């Protein structure tokens, strides 16, 4: 980004000089043109340098990224930010400075009744509805971070649960600290060409080596998005090389076998492997608004055109309006296959899908998000320098600052603090479905639907416990959910009679 900025400012200066020399008219006109040009240059300069990306010195950056893991006992009075269901696997107890404010960040649960404990943070994947930090003092702020797949944590998708939280950090753009682009670890991946294979070579691989046009590599074959059924249908019309456990028809090279970890899938070798394919299946495991993962970003990174299904509004996050094939744009799987085949045999049309790689990223919404995000998920990113090397620390800062604002308001030393309560918009996973015979995601799926609706009973029981300041053992909770469900079934039955 800095090189672009420099370039822009140079162009600016050049334009000003040219403007001044070019004008051979009256002096006043000359001054007028010069002033306007200078003002425009100044505006561009300010917008690029001053406003969106705060420049930090090296010491500031290292201070933000520093982790002091020695338990801190002399921190009385420092507000505590307590990870209740922790995202950290080790013990953390740490006074962190975020600009002008400080918080003691810890996951030591024995501090729950400490008067300094002001914020409780919950990690979605470890959320235990039967074991909440109760009673909740009226000034206790609760925060939720959930970066993993929403599948299996459907309880968060219910009003009773999500409204417990004052702040969230989820894949949803409406969350307080959204991490929709978390899997686009470096923004420069969008225009990176390291792993791209020329179209000529792709055609050779297709014709001589017998590669299929489409790549599929998955090992989670049973998902609420019904991914495998769709790919199986598509496979009837067009060849797909499937290397994962799901619908496997080809062997991965030995060096790329996963061995239960994702590491191999981030290796350069795997990226090169994907880059050889013209198209890649990019279907998420759950269909939720704004739930977007590496399944989309990886093919975009290596220049394999993604065939996308997942967030219904995924278009908002694509580099430009012609960089992916969206399943939802086709009336049937046959039509989609026909289109892919057409692109496979029409080089010019295919190449249009990769034009964004030449820095033709037209999506201002996406650019704005990437420019403003204050975390980065990989140390190797070239373009942007950010305060935090993980959105987890970024969220800690966000929540710590909000809490200080709230405290100042309560102490009557700060401005009004508007109540903040999360809503269903912060999660937004509609009921899971299945594909019909034509390949449209419209059929109610009884199995996943059961998990989805059962979470409603969990949410009701959780709410009753919460209102009564009660915590219970997990097995008791399971029993309570069961009887809640039976009660509901009985009532429905009565209504029918
Ligand atoms: C947690 O905090 C308590 C004091 O509240 C302390 O005695 C205990 O050692 C701490 N636990 C760990 C693992 O640091
Ligand atoms: C895509 O964007 C270009 C310019 O950015 C515009 O001219 C074109 O109409 C858009 N196409 C679609 C299908 O929206
Ligand atoms: C609020 O008041 C308490 C007690 O007077 C004080 O300890 C605390 O630092 C104050 N907090 C803020 C954010 O001003
Ligand atoms: C935090 O959330 C709780 C639960 O929804 C709510 O009662 C409380 O008023 C909220 N606090 C603030 C400061 O918004
Ligand atoms: C739960 O605890 C809160 C805070 O101590 C208290 O105000 C409330 O009355 C309690 N509720 C019940 C049902 O005991």
UniProtKB/TrEMBL annotation:
Task: Please state which protein family the record places this protein in.
Answer: Belongs to the glycosyltransferase 10 family.
User: Where do transmembrane segments lie in this chain?
Assistant: 27-51
**Which EC class, in a word?**
transferase
Q: Which PANTHER family match?
A: ALPHA- 1,3 -FUCOSYLTRANSFERASE (PTHR11929), ALPHA-(1,3)-FUCOSYLTRANSFERASE 10 (PTHR11929:SF194)
Would you tell me the protein name for this molecule? Fucosyltransferase
Which superkingdom heads the taxonomic lineage of this protein's source?
Eukaryota
Q: What is its EC number?
A: 2.4.1.-
- Which cellular component, as a GO term, is one annotated location? Golgi cisterna membrane
* Fucosyltransferase N-terminal domain location: 79-177
Where in the cell is the protein located? Endomembrane system; Golgi apparatus, Golgi stack membrane
The organism named in the record is Potamilus streckersoni
Query: Which key words tag this protein in UniProt?
Result: Glycoprotein, Glycosyltransferase, Golgi apparatus, Membrane, Signal-anchor, Transferase, Transmembrane, Transmembrane helix
According to its record, how does it sit in the membrane? Answer: Single-pass type II membrane protein
* Pathway, per record: Protein modification; protein glycosylation
| Claim: Chaperone is one of the keywords in the record | no
Q: Where is the Fucosyltransferase C-terminal domain?
A: 215-388
Task: Give the main location.
Answer: membrane
Q: Which InterPro entries match?
A: Glyco_tran_10_C, Glyco_tran_10_N, Glyco_trans_10, GT10-like_C_sf
The molecular function GO annotations come to:
alpha-(1->3)-fucosyltransferase activity
């Amino acid at each position: 980004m800095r090189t672009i900025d420099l370039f822009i400012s140079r162009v600016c200066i050049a334009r000003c000089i040219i403007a001044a020399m070019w004008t051979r008219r009256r002096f006043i006109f000359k001054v007028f043109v010069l002033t306007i040009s200078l003002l425009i240059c100044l505006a561009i300069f300010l917008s690029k340098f001053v406003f969106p990306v705060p420049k930090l010195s090296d010491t500031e950056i290292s201070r933000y990224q520093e982790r002091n893991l020695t338990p801190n006992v002399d921190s009385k009075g420092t507000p505590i930010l307590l990870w209740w269901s922790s995202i950290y696997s080790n013990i953390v107890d740490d006074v962190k400075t975020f600009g002008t404010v400080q918080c003691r960040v810890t996951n030591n649960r024995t501090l729950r009744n400490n008067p300094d404990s002001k914020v409780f943070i919950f990690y979605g994947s470890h959320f235990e509805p039967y074991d909440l930090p109760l009673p909740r003092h009226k000034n206790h702020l609760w925060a939720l971070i959930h970066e993993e797949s929403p599948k299996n944590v459907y309880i968060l998708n219910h009003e009773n649960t999500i409204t417990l939280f004052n702040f969230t950090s989820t894949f949803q753009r409406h969350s307080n600290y959204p991490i929709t682009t978390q899997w686009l670890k470096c923004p420069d991946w969008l225009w990176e060409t390291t792993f791209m294979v020329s179209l000529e070579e792709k055609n050779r691989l297709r014709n001589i080596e017998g590669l299929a046009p489409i790549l599929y590599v998955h090992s989670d074959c049973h998902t609420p998005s019904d991914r495998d059924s769709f790919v199986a249908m598509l496979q009837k019309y067009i060849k797909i090389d499937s290397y994962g456990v799901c619908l496997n028809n080809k062997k991965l090279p030995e060096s790329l076998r996963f061995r239960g970890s994702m590491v191999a899938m981030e290796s350069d070798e795997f990226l090169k492997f994907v880059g050889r394919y013209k198209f890649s299946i990019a279907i998420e495991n759950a269909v939720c608004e704004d739930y977007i993962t590496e399944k989309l970003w990886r093919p975009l990174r290596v220049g394999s055109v993604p065939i996308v299904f997942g967030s219904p509004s995924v278009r908002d996050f694509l580099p430009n309006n012609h960089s992916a094939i969206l399943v939802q744009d086709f009336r049937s799987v046959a039509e989609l296959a026909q289109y892919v085949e057409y692109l496979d045999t029409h080089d010019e049309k295919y190449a249009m899908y990769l034009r964004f790689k030449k820095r033709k990223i037209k999506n201002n919404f996406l650019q704005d998000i990437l420019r403003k995000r204050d975390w980065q998920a990989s140390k190797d990113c070239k373009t942007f320098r950010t305060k935090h090397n993980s959105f987890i620390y970024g969220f800690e800062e966000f929540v710590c600052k909000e809490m200080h604002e709230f405290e100042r308001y309560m102490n009557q030393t700060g401005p009004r603090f508007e109540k903040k309560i999360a809503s269903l918009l912060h999660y937004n996973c509609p009921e899971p479905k299945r594909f019909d015979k034509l390949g449209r995601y419209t059929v109610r799926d009884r199995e996943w639907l059961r998990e989805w609706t059962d979470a409603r009973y969990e949410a009701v029981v959780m709410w009753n416990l919460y209102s009564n300041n009660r915590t219970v053992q997990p097995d008791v909770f399971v029993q309570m959910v069961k009887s809640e469900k039976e009660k509901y079934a009985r009532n429905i039955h009565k209504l029918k009679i």
